Amino acid sequence: MAKPGKWLLFGGVLLAVAAVYMVGKRKMTKTAVKKTYAKSEEVFGNPLMGYAPSAWREEVTDDIQLLYMDITWAELEPEEGIYDWTSIEQENQLARWQQEGKHLILRFICDIPREERHMDIPKWLYEKTGEAGTWYDGEYGKGFAPDYNNAELIACHAKAVEALGTHFGTDGLVAYVELGSLGHWGEWHVNYEEGIQCMPKEKVREQYITPWILAFPKAKLLMRRPFRAAKQYGMGLYNDMAGHARDTEEWLQWIREGGDYAQAEEEDALWAMPDFWKTAPSGGELTSSVSMEELLQTNLDETVQLLRDSHTTFLGPKIADEAYPEGYEAVLHQMGYRIRILDAELGGEGEQASSIRLTWENDGVAPFYGDWPVYVYVEDGDGETVEKEPVTMQLPALLPGVQMVTDTALTTKDLPGLAGNEGVYQIWIGAEDPMTGRPAVRLAMDVEYVDGRNRLF
């Protein structure tokens, strides 16, 4: 039988060896490098949000990342089954915007009041529908309002939307579709007090909605009012009276409570959907009923608050006038997402791979609605990308006020060492546009931003 003293001596040796080992182990451990980032209040444009002027504009400012394109049926299909893509693409400079990585809002329109007598549906369709509709000359202007209940019009509309989807709905250039089609300016209302036929009932309206869902599966769809279909299909909403206090409050009340649709003399046709903006955008354009001076100067605080209450992501084609720079920037600052990283922690041990932990936050009024992949990029001293790793996250899930933590493993060794020698490696973060394959989102933090990448270390 062994003596207790011998075991005590042996145990002491083991403890001593273990202590030496742990000291050595601690010496080998790379201390994690943690960095915090200041929030930026700088005003800038970003993809899928902000101002959206008409796509035919030859000059746009650097903050513009969205363009608005409306197409009348007469422009689209001058002859039955023949679509004038060439004219539409040239007029709206689609090749240019795609090359520049900008995206489009699309609205298809059958009736735009103007100063002269005219039709916005093609002549062949006017004849095919038996001239069903109303010629008008009233407060809004002159034009022709089709009979939206007409079976031929409905059938031809479905074919036109299918053609639009085949041509514009596959490459991601069209990010948002405002479901126009019905009413003056595609706003789902007419001036029926002047003898124009009322808007169709829900059963007929549905036939103007479902073709868009099939034709543009990659785009976010928006409706002028919170109809049952908007809630059912998870659509966004747009307000073409943005900045007009009374009309915007009425629009917000529909969203909060639902209500009747007087345009179709239909009760309870509008559904409450107060959280729609969490998954689909709130858009529209600035009202023409209030002067820019009132919107952007005299009543600027009210304009900004209405946009915040609406969780507005974009405005166009009527946008803020740059003659009022303070108002222009204040409105832009209160649209869409403002995603940033609060802090980053870079760690790793010895020869093991490194990892980076990021804490994210969104200080904007809306999420980012594109399901774009996010990557961490490691660059060497020559600026070459030596590693690119996907970040496991869904940007649209980053709602305002929500924090998210992501962990990404990196294969490059000893990255924490760059804290003492930042010339060896740089680490960047970026969200890549699937349309271009290039990073493009600027984060709202005080860091270097180059070619769509935000520098972390």
Category by helix and strand content: alpha/beta
Query: Treating each run of at least 4 consecutive H or I residues as one helix, how many helices?
Result: 12
Helix content: 25-40%
Total number of β-strand segments? 22
Question: N- to C-terminal separation?
Answer: 62 Å
Largest sheet, in brief, is: 6 strands, parallel
Specify the oligomeric state.
single chain
User: Ranges with pLDDT <50 over ≥5 residues?
Assistant: 1-30
Q: How are the strands ordered across the major sheet?
A: 3-4-7-8-9-12
Textual characterization of the structure:
This protein is 27% helix and 28% strand. By secondary structure, it is an alpha/beta fold. The strands form 6 sheets. A 6-stranded parallel β-sheet has the order 3-4-7-8-9-12. α8 links the parallel β8 and β9. The N and C termini lie far apart (62 Å). 40% of the residues are buried. Residues 1-30 have low confidence and may be disordered.
Quick recap:
The chain is of the alpha/beta class. It has helices spanning 4-28, 73-76, 85-91, 94-99, 123-128, 151-168, 202-215, 228-232, 245-257, 292-298, 300-310, 325-333; strands at residues 29-36, 50-51, 66-72, 103-109, 133-137, 142-146, 174-178, 220-223, 236-242, 259-261, 266-270, 282-286, 314-315, 339-349, 353-362, 374-380, 385-391, 403-413, 425-433, 438-439, 449-450, 453-455.
Which features characterize this protein?
single chain, six-stranded parallel β-sheet, six-stranded antiparallel β-sheet, elongated, disordered N terminus
